[in-house]
Amino acid sequence: MGKMEHEVKKMERLQKVIADAGVTSRRKAEKLIEEGRVKVNGSVVKEMGTKVTPNKDTVEVDHVPIDREEPVYYLLYKPKQVISAVSDDKNRSVVTDFFEEETRRIFPVGRLDYDTSGLLLMTNDGEFANLLMHPKNKVFKTYVAKVRGRPSKESLHRLQTGIELEGRKTAPAKVKIKSSNKKTNSSIVEISIHEGRNQQVRKMFEEIDHPVIKLKREKYGPLTLENLRPGEKRKLKPIEVKQLKEFAVT
C-alpha cells in the first residue's frame, strides 16, 4: 500500500506537466488538451482532470514528445512590428525568431503589442510565467509613451486613480510627464502599471484624449533594458530570476 500511495503522490495534472516542460502556459495547455492535440502513451486525451506520472508516462503535444528541460530565462528588447508569440499564421516576424540558436521551446511571458517595443521576458518555465502574469501578483511594468498634446493634471489624476475601460476600472498607475514639445504638440509620459490587459496603455491614453504615437516598455519589475538595442537579448542572472519571483509575491 505504501508503494501505491507513493506512486499516486507522484502523479500530476496533465496541464501542469505540459507547462512545467516549458511548452506553454498552464491555461494554454488546457486549451491544447481540449483541442485533442495532446497524447498520453500514444492515445489522445481530452479530459481535463487527467493525471500522469512525469518521467514515466509519455506525453506528446502536436506529435512531439515533451521533455523536462532545464529552465532558461531571457530578457529581449522586442523591436516594433514583431508578434509576441512563437508562431504567426500571417507569416509575420515573431519573438522566437531572435532565438534560432535556442533548442529549448521558449515562449514570451505575457505580450507586447505589434507596434510596441521594449522589454519582454522569454522562458520555458511555465510556472515562472504564470507567477509573473497572475493578476494578484502586482509586478509593475514601466512604459514610456509619446502622446499627442500635453495631458492636464486632471487627466493624469484619472490615470493615477484608475479609469473605466470596457466596463472595468483600471488599477492605480504611477504617471509623470517627462517632457513636452509645443512645436510637435506632443509629450513624453512615463507610466507604470501592474495589469496586463490587451493594449491597456494605449487605451488608457485614448480614454483621456491623448492618443499614443509611440510606446516602449523600459522596465519589468527590477529589470531594465540597460544597453540592449532592438532585437538584442541576454540571459537573466539567477539573482534576477529570484528577484522577479520575490517581486511577484510581495
Features:
250 residues, alpha+beta, Structural Genomics Hypothetical 15.5 Kd Protein In mrcA-pckA Intergenic Region, Chain A, Alpha-Beta Plaits, 3 domains, nine-stranded mixed beta sheet, four-stranded antiparallel beta sheet, 7 helices, 17 strands, 25% helix, disordered N terminus, PsdUridine_synth_RsuA/RluA, EC 5.4.99.-, isomerase
Structure description:
This protein is an alpha+beta fold. It has three domains: 2-65, RNA-binding S4 domain (Structural Genomics Hypothetical 15.5 Kd Protein In mrcA-pckA Intergenic Region, Chain A), CATH 3.10.290; 73-135 and 223-249, Pseudouridine synthase I, catalytic domain, N-terminal subdomain (Alpha-Beta Plaits, 2-Layer Sandwich); 141-220, Alpha-Beta Plaits. It contains seven helices and 17 strands. It has helices at residues 2-10, 14-20, 26-34, 126-133, 153-161, 200-207, 238-249; strands at residues 12-13, 38-40, 43-44, 51-52, 59-61, 64-65, 73-78, 107-108, 117-123, 141-148, 164-165, 168-169, 174-181, 186-193, 212-220, 223-224, 233-235. The strands form four sheets. Strands 7, 8, 9, 10, 13, 14, 15, 16 and 17 form a nine-stranded mixed β-sheet that branches. A four-stranded antiparallel β-sheet has the order 3-2-5-6, with no helix packed on it. A two-stranded antiparallel ribbon has the order 1-4. It is elongated, with a radius of gyration of 21 Å. This is Pseudouridine synthase.
